[in-house]
Specification:
The chain is an alpha/beta fold. The chain is built from 15 helices and 16 strands. It binds one RNA strand through α1, β10, α6, β13 and α9.
Length: 478
RNA sequence: GGCGACGUCGCCAAGUGGUAAGGCCGAGGUCUGCAAAACCUCUAUCAGCGGUUCAAAUCCGCUCGUCGCCUCCA
């Protein structure tokens, strides 16, 4: 039983076999740092974080590389030469480098809140200009790229016969429409820029054998992935919107140079829509994570994202978000009770019914990272746990065993953390609440319900809810 | 115009050939001094039509609808 992954290259689920097991080289397209991260980033990087975690848990030695695009891409493949970071720099009256760094910090800050692990290598495009120039030069020498009289360099797509194998596009049919202004010095409309000459007004530019300029949109990923992983990557991930042209062009410029397969498994997460429509910068329905986190806990968002499969379109709405929050809270409360009961214990032996459920979880994850099923399996296990917890003679060893499995599923693999639980269990608060519960128990025994209810109501006002079970009284903290 | 995805219970969402997971909401019940929680039970034949098959939500065709990519975008 191995892991299967849906490979965009074949459009089928395939058994996952890395080039050099147990090592896995994985590259995911990182953000362009010219603004705060949005919901789409949250989805994409949560998805790949879970993929990363599950591969590691499964025994693979993963090197996860992610770029930071701090060279502004062109806003279009035209000659106007404006780039996004430079634009933002003008807007904020800052240096482009300040903009890039500011939003890089902002990005990692948001990712941390979502409990997304840092990649093993986070690399910046601006730190690899030399390698990019070398790569471009080699492509020119091999005849795949050409320098124009304006000192722009383009990749000649027609020379690379496999162009289109990822996106399924055929050159003849992709003739650019009227919406794109073709740069005048291209040989063919489908050619894409590897390097562009910069004029004086340009803020981000570097020296090169072809004069002062800046790199094209696609080259950084080819160059950095090769440098840190190798000529063939096991996994390359990104949003489905990157399939064309970005990843198609990456394949071309990489394979043209090395003659080897660039990617073994291309993985793309589907888009996130807001109330049924695409979230777009120009559409104004943009949801910034920093704003959203004022209303909902980041962990709830993570849970919400994982409740749908990464290859499905995920529609974000307030209603579905709230439904997810209620479900999340229920899970958190159940786990809270379980952890409280079993803390500082180690299980002995195994329990067949628990193992059965646990293996269902792993199977779901192995099957192209089916997190919705994985989560439904957790609910099944929690049902088992709650039932056991409710018994007067509950099996503490079994509960401990369950809690150990739950930790693997939520913390280790799905990366869903219940921080409040741990905090609640440890400090003096717990002792105080337990003392009050004891007092209330006394009053109830004496049928002094007035006092017992006072304790319960007062605690409720503080956000502490008491829950009487058959065996004992548990509590949850909001 | 080209390429692609999707349409499953009131809502969210799995299932891709063997007879519909899970979550939210709702109804009933058990427990309980009451309340809450927990647990149990109940609620869909899968957009429509046609075809392939012993068997289809799952494969094929058509129709309708929604969305995405083709321009930076996760």
């Amino acid at each position: 039983m191995g892991i299967t992954i849906y490979n965009t290259l074949s459009r089928e689920k395939e058994d996952f076999i890395p080039l050099n097991p147990p090592f896995v080289g994985m590259y995911v397209c990182g953000p362009t740092v010219y603004g705060d991260s949005h919901l789409g980033h949250a989805r994409s990087y949560t998805v790949f974080d879970v993929l990363y975690r599950h591969l590691k848990w499964s025994g693979y030695k993963v090197r996860y590389v992610q770029n930071i695009t701090d060279v502004g891409h062109l806003t279009g493949d035209t000659d106007d030469g404006s780039d996004k970071i430079a634009k933002q720099a003008v807007l904020e009256r800052k240096e482009p480098v300040e903009i890039a760094y500011k939003y890089e910090v902002s990005y990692f800050d948001d990712m941390k809140k979502l409990n997304i692990l840092n990649p093993d290598i986070s690399c910046r495009a601006t730190g690899h200009i030399i390698e990019m120039i070398e790569h471009i030069q080699a492509l020119i020498e091999k005849g795949y790229a050409y320098v124009t009289d304006q000192n722009n360099i383009y990749f000649e797509v027609r020379k690379f016969k496999d162009y289109g194998k990822l996106s399924g596009r055929v050159l003849e049919e992709t003739k650019s429409g009227e919406r794109i202004n073709i740069a005048g010095d291209k040989r063919n409309s489908e050619d894409f820029a590897l390097w562009k000459a910069a004029d004086n007004s340009h803020l981000m530019k570097w020296n090169s054998p072809w004069g002062v300029g800046y790199p094209g949109w696609h080259i950084e990923c080819s160059v950095m992935s090769k440098k840190y992983i190798g000529e063939t990557l096991d996994i390359h991930g990104g949003g489905i919107d990157n399939v064309f042209p970005h990843h198609e062009c990456e394949i071309a410029q990489s394979e043209a140079l090395t003659g080897k397969p660039f990617i073994r498994y291309f993985i793309h997460n589907n888009m996130l829509t807001v109330n049924g429509t695409k979230m777009g910068k120009s559409l104004g329905n943009f949801i910034i994570l920093k704003d959203l986190f004022k209303e909902i806990e980041p962990m709830v968002l993570r849970f919400y994202i994982l409740q749908s499969h990464y290859r499905s379109v995920l529609d974000f709405s307030k209603d579905s978000m709230n439904a997810a929050k209620v479900g999340f809270d229920r899970m958190r409360n159940s786990i809270f009770s379980l952890y409280k009961k079993t803390k500082d214990r180690k299980s002995e032996g195994t329990f067949r019914d628990v193992d059965e459920i646990f293996s269902q979880f792993i199977q779901a994850m192995d099957d192209d990272f089916n997190t919705p099923i994985a989560i439904s399996v957790i609910y099944e296990l929690l049902k088992l746990s709650n039932t056991e917890l409710n018994k007067t003679d509950s099996d503490i060893n079994k509960l401990t065993y369950i809690s150990e499995k739950i930790t693997i599923m939520t913390d280790d693999i799905l990366g869903i953390q219940f921080n409040t639980i741990e905090a609640g269990v440890k400090n003096h608060e717990d002792q105080l609440i337990s003392f009050l519960i004891e007092m209330r128990k006394q009053y109830r025994a004496e049928k002094n319900f007035k006092m017992s209810d006072t304790i319960r109501d007062s605690l409720k006002e503080m956000g502490i809810t008491l829950k009487d079970g058959a065996a004992e009284t548990a509590y949850t903290i909001d």
